[in-house]
Design goal:
4 helices
Length: 131
């Protein structure tokens, strides 16, 4: 079939003006993939360490208590909260609510802010900053 040059092309990502809803949508996909790969890898390593005995678990514990290990755990926990809140947002959108521009923008921003706040609260609690 011959291409008709007078027909417009589909809008490309460079044409759209970026907004919070686009960011949250992309983050939802990225965090889902990260949780599938990194989260599952950490879970399998933890289970293998438990099954491997005290020495294997000590190696695992030493690795996750290293500053780089804590950075990975903070990243995975943020990905979890971001994916959770974004999924809840999508669940509400699936009911047909929240498609008004201002409401959608507010919920998208709340998703990002909420995931950061929940991650900070979790790690402040885990590291003993909250009594």
């Amino acid at each position: 079939m011959a291409r008709n040059p007078s027909r417009p092309l589909s809008p490309h990502i460079t044409i759209w003006r970026w907004g919070p809803a686009m960011l949250v949508s992309i983050l939802h996909r990225i965090t889902g993939g990260a949780l599938s790969v990194a989260g599952l890898a950490l879970l399998m390593w933890w289970l293998a360490a438990i099954a491997g005995g005290p020495a294997a678990y000590a190696d695992f514990a030493a690795a996750i208590q290293h500053p780089l290990g804590i950075v990975v755990l903070v990243g995975v926990s943020w990905a979890f909260f971001q994916h959770l809140l974004s999924g809840m947002r999508h669940l509400v959108l699936d009911t047909g609510a929240g498609f008004e521009l201002n409401t959608n923008k507010t919920w998208a921003i709340a998703t990002v802010v909420g995931s950061i706040a929940l991650t900070i609260a979790l790690w402040a609690n885990l590291l003993g900053a909250i009594a």
